[in-house]
């Protein structure tokens, strides 16, 4: 993974400061920004996620305000209907005696107090009760928000492929350094970043699985697992025998929240049949030469004893 320059860090800090001024934040945690920058976290993606969360909270707040306004309008309509009913009832009454006007005022005042109390009670009940559509809408928003907050996220990673040439007799005959043969894969290097693991006691693991899309079995799937809050991540690699020798570059460690897996494939060196036959012929000639020398020494010993 290519290292980012100090100019990009200054640009990120400048953007953070500008955003804090527009959103009236109290301060910028510079140490956290530096730590996220060192871990290679994408600040634009994090800012977009934070913006989406704030938008969802604003939508929920709008729903609550809309529900309160609806309850107030309903109570006002009921109050107006009751006032019209009282006016209609008074119009129907025939009270010719003037001495009953004081009694009517007292009665209207008591009725008004009762209506106000009933209105307050209904407002409280309406605020406490919600329609099914409003409940379903708010629950859906809360579920989507919780799902976005706690869903498994894809870890950051870097993967490199180690390639090279095979200079066997055929390639040496038909190719040269100006016109090299085709490259082949010698190994891989994986760096998977898990800085925010929930359970740090569990070390991330990897498994090799069969590649169902490969017809000849030339490739396989390597899958990395670490646990929450990170999702599984898989890569398609060449299916070959690994060389687990540290001398040849094998490494599998988990330090500082980074899983490092480096490995190379085994290399087999074959000698042609002609060279093997020459070696066998040379061995036979050496055996014959030693046998002749031993027979000569035995003949000389026999002559010595006969004399």
UniProtKB/TrEMBL annotation:
Domain Splicing factor Cactin C-terminal: 147-271
Region of interest (Disordered), residue spans: 83-109
Pfam families: CactinC_cactus (PF09732)
Skewed-composition ranges (Basic and acidic residues): 83-99
GO biological process annotation, one example: mRNA cis splicing, via spliceosome
Cellular component GO terms, alphabetical: cytoplasm; spliceosomal complex
Family matches, as PANTHER family: POLYGLUTAMINE BINDING PROTEIN 1/MARVEL MEMBRANE-ASSOCIATING DOMAIN CONTAINING 3, SPLICING FACTOR CACTIN
Protein name listed in UniProt: Splicing factor Cactin C-terminal domain-containing protein
